[in-house]
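Help needed: design a sequence for this.
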């Protein structure tokens, strides 16, 4: 089910959307910086501060961004690409994913993924990430699904098994399961994994722990085009 205007849905399905969008932003000097105060937010509580651009953080735009009609209550920010904000909210034990265009004040609700309320429980950890694939000019949402091992006396939320990865393609308007799984050696994704560069050159990044003691770390990269995972070792100077 899509909760957005027909015109925006049509615009998002066009391959020229990003090129025309970026061209318009550059030549019309319409860069707006949205700063979210927390990774979770309520639309009715002014969840962000709008600035005219990143070079003028001291200036604040009042009532510039229009809130979508009938927005969900508590939301969690997933990511932002090309002025589109991706966030999720819980509805009847189901995680609904939305993509919001603040410039047009329109919101797209993604169709149902595989993790419905009847097969989701507290032993699972679901992580979404938002990106853009430049070769196909398509926006993607990646869903990771991990199963926690029983909590021990020294550590909680350790993943014992990563299930199949699901990817949403905006052009097709649907989710699909991909062949490759998230690396099995990852015991947990760092809660501050957003320190990694977000969606650089068609790749998503996660800062991960690879041991149960949460000391050894690697960066796991997902190629949105090839739909494959790769790993990057951290420098000893960074680990120290």
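Sure. Designed sequence:
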């Amino acid at each position: 089910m899509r909760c957005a205007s027909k015109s925006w849905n049509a615009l998002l399905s066009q391959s020229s959307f990003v090129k025309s969008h970026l061209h318009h932003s550059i030549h019309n000097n319409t860069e707006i910086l949205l700063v979210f105060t927390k990774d979770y937010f309520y639309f009715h509580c002014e969840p962000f501060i709008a600035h005219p651009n990143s070079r003028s953080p001291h200036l604040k735009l009042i009532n510039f961004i229009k809130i979508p009609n009938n927005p969900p209550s508590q939301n969690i920010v997933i990511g932002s690409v090309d002025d589109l904000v991706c966030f999720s909210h819980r509805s009847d034990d189901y995680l609904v994913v939305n993509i919001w265009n603040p410039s047009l004040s329109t919101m797209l609700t993604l169709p149902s993924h595989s993790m419905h309320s009847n097969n989701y429980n507290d032993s699972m950890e679901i992580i979404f990430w938002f990106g853009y694939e430049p070769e196909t000019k398509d926006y993607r949402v990646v869903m990771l699904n991990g199963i926690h091992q029983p909590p021990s006396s020294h550590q909680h939320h350790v993943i014992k098994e990563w299930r199949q990865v699901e990817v949403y393609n905006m052009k097709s308007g649907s989710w699909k399961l991909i062949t490759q799984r998230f690396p099995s050696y990852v015991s947990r994704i760092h809660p501050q994994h957003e320190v990694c560069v977000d969606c650089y050159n068609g790749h998503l990044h996660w800062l991960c722990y690879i041991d149960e003691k949460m000391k050894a770390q690697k960066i796991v990269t997902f190629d949105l085009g090839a739909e494959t995972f790769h790993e990057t070792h951290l420098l000893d100077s960074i680990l120290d």
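The radius of gyration is 19 Å.
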